Amino acid sequence: MVGRRRELLGFAAAGLLAYAADLALFTCLRGPAGLDPLTAKALSFVAGCTVAYAGNALGTYRHTRPGGLRAYAVFFAVNVAGAAVQLLCLAVSHYGLGFTSQRADTVSGAGIGMALATILRFWGTRTLVFRAGEGTGGGPGPWTERNGGRVGSWTG
């Protein structure tokens, strides 16, 4: 149980850092750099994914030793799927159900959509990118009840 809590906290910490990087870069690219919103968001999204990958690879899941560019590509695909979930929630609420206020858009996109996307990202990150036992000699995964997580990692 303690291991799962550490894993969740590490994943959340990496996600918060990624969100901060995404938001800061988007703000700079839209403001002082003067880029259009879609270009600015695309660049900040890639930067946020990179920060999240680094945080998870070097922290939360560092014991798995993921395999380079392939692992990053899968991680990026999982994050694109998460972004699609957020957009789908917003589209269903706004266009399908007719909830068109700014508050409804925020609740559906940034609230419900973000929650569902985070669940998808967590599952995809731990299942598809940083698989338990991969690169660890095939032993039991890092977050089992038996071993309680990796001692000395930055997440606990």
TrEMBL record:
It comes from the Bacteria. InterPro entries: GtrA_CellWall_Glycosyl, GtrA_DPMS_TM. It is a multi-pass membrane protein. Keywords: Membrane, Transmembrane, Transmembrane helix. It is found in: Membrane. Pfam families: GtrA_DPMS_TM (PF04138). Belongs to the GtrA family. This is GtrA family protein.
